[in-house]
Amino acid sequence: MRVHVLSSGLCQECQSEYDWKNGPREVRKQANKARRIAMYEQGKKIIDKKWKAKYGDDSIDAVLGHE
User: Fold this and answer.
1) Can you give the pLDDT at residue 50?
2) pLDDT tens for each residue of 35-66
3) How far apart are CA 5 and CA 58, in angstroms?
4) Which pTM value belongs to this model?
5) Residue 13 backbone dihedrals phi, psi, to 5 degrees
6) What is the separation, in whole angstroms, between the first and last Cα of the chain?
7) Domain parsing of the chain, residue ranges
8) In whole angstroms, how far apart are CA 33 and each of 27, 43, 44?
């Protein structure tokens, strides 16, 4: 009987079993990442809207008086 050991140190059967059990965790990680990115983008839109309402099209340097 031959067993093929993968680079992870597990045999092919053990690795596939691990991958199947790890599937829901990976799905959660991907969904959480998508939510974080969406939240960041939403915050960025809110900040840009407030900046535009307060300063218009002025740059940061112009507002701080560096120009």
Assistant:
1) 93
2) 999 999 999 999 999 999 998 888 888 888 87
3) 61
4) 0.61
5) -65, -45
6) 76
7) 12-64
8) 10, 15, 16
What does the alpha-carbon distance between residue 41 and residue 5 come to, in Å, rounded to a whole number? 43
Tokens of 38: 């969406």
Structure tokens at 61: 């340097």
What is the Cβ-side half-sphere exposure of residue 45, based on CA atoms within 13 angstroms?
6
Type of residue numbered 36:
R
DSSP state string for the chain: ----B-TTSSBHHHHHHHHHHHHHHHHHHHHHHHHHHHHHHHHHHHHHHHHHHHHTT--HHHHHT--
* The pair of three-digit structure tokens given for residue 20, joined into one six-digit string: 């199947």
